[in-house]
Amino acid sequence: MDFTLNDEQKMLIDTIRTMGEREKFRDLAKRIDETAEFPWELLKKYADLGLLGMTLSPAHGGGGQSALNAILVIEELAKFSPMIAAPVFESSVGPVRVIDIFGTDEQKQAVLPGVCRGELSVSVCMTEPEAGSDLTALTTNAEEEGDHYVLNGRKSFITGGGHASHYMVYTRFGKVKGYKGIGGLLVEKGMPGFTFGKQERYMGLHGMPSCDLFFDNVKVPKKNLVIKPGDFNKLMLTFDIERCGNSAMCLGVAGGALNEAKAYAMERHAFGRPICEFQNIQFTTVDMATKLDAARLLVYRAAAGAGQGLPSMYEAGMAKAFANEMVVSVTESAMQIFGGYGYSTEFPIERMYRDAKAWCVAGGTIQMLKIGTASMIYGRRFDQRRSSS
Ligand SMILES: Cc1cc2nc3c(=O)[nH]c(=O)nc-3n(C[C@H](O)[C@H](O)[C@H](O)COP(=O)(O)OP(=O)(O)OC[C@H]3O[C@@H](n4cnc5c(N)ncnc54)[C@H](O)[C@@H]3O)c2cc1C
């Protein structure tokens, strides 16, 4: 078993780190949080550096790189802020991968090159007001009519909502109940009857577009069918790549908080000594580093196992749940090391804590991931609908 990154991967991390320092990403992260404005100019920069569509197929302008390489870049950028890493996340491990893996040639040609140039982006649209964890209860509906589907329904909390050019919509087809009736349709911004709600205001991740989507008799051409009903598992399998990206965000935020806390502990004095000389600060720091490393091993295992394809559900689910809990714990410990300054908006730690909390829900809650992992451990399904009484 080889736990070392290869030279190319080490160089990739180094390049990202140098760029972050040169471009003053630490200051940019603070500015994005304060203004809640996304720095769209990053897209061109990242496209020029080949950081968009890193994992997408080269035939359509993608980098053809491994999931692990994209994870390494996301982690390094998220040390500054998840917003700064977001374009790499969206274009390399986001829902565009569903099109890359399962789409028709026409769909790929229409979307992938534009994503790699930073001109197009794809949002994933699963959650509804009455169907979050209970995803298979979704009621958004597509009815077949001639050469198109008529789409009706509403989606909530859609990252990229209002900004993205394309929306991978999980919808029920006809009246088929449960997961067997669910498939994926690609809906384009501007289609008549497709509108957006007001932008969400979150505790963290300021600057990330997000809103509800409304479909009112939207005519979606049949050629936009990406995943046919009955192939719901394909949607979920591809979503496991996104879960690795979510976990990489956690590694980055936790790594950023650990770096800040370490530097602060060496600088800050109490009782006439730098606080890093107190054993409790040392033990706290060691616990933070240990949890981060443990999460990193789980995330890298899942991503390395995926290669250029799909990760194992077991590995991706376990990695995300662990990384989600880890990042909250590590950023909270960093706040304690900073004392009163950790609670001040002058320092980045409170932002990192706010950003950390998002990942425990986005991409599926920790609880739902553990339910999925439990099924795999016991080798049987645990029906959440059945009453235990
Ligand atoms: C920052 C952010 C970004 C997001 N981006 C997107 C996006 O781009 N696209 C998208 O489709 N969605 C997105 N979401 C929505 C997210 O996927 C859902 O919020 C999530 O799946 C939970 O659904 P819910 O909010 O309806 O909570 P609910 O399903 O109502 O759950 C509420 C609580 O009950 C728990 N719970 C529910 N059922 C069980 C059970 N059987 N056993 C134990 N506990 C249970 C949950 O774990 C949770 O703690 C985003 C959310 C956030 C916060």
Descriptive overview:
The structure is a single chain. The protein has helices at residues 7-22, 25-35, 42-48, 67-78, 82-92, 96-102, 105-116, 232-267, 279-306, 313-337, 349-358, 366-378; strands at residues 122-125, 141-145, 148-159, 166-173, 182-188, 194-196, 210-221, 225-227, 269-270, 273-274. It is α+β, with helices and mostly antiparallel strands and 389 residues long. Strands 1, 2, 3, 4, 5, 6, 7 and 8 form an eight-stranded mixed β-sheet that branches. A two-stranded antiparallel ribbon has the order 9-10. A hairpin with an 8-residue loop joins strand 4 (166-173) and strand 5 (182-188). Helix 6 (96-102) packs across helix 8 (232-267), helix 8 packs antiparallel against helix 9 (279-306) and helix 9 (279-306) packs antiparallel against helix 10. The longest helix is centred in the middle third of the chain and has 36 residues, at 232-267. The structure holds flavin-adenine dinucleotide. The site of flavin-adenine dinucleotide (FAD) has 22 residues, from strand 1, strand 3 and helix 12.
* Helix coverage percent: 40-55%
Strand count, sense and closure of the main sheet? 8 strands, mixed
The CATH architecture name of the largest domain reads Up-down Bundle
Task: State the helix count.
Answer: 12
Structure summary:
By secondary structure, the protein is of the alpha+beta class.
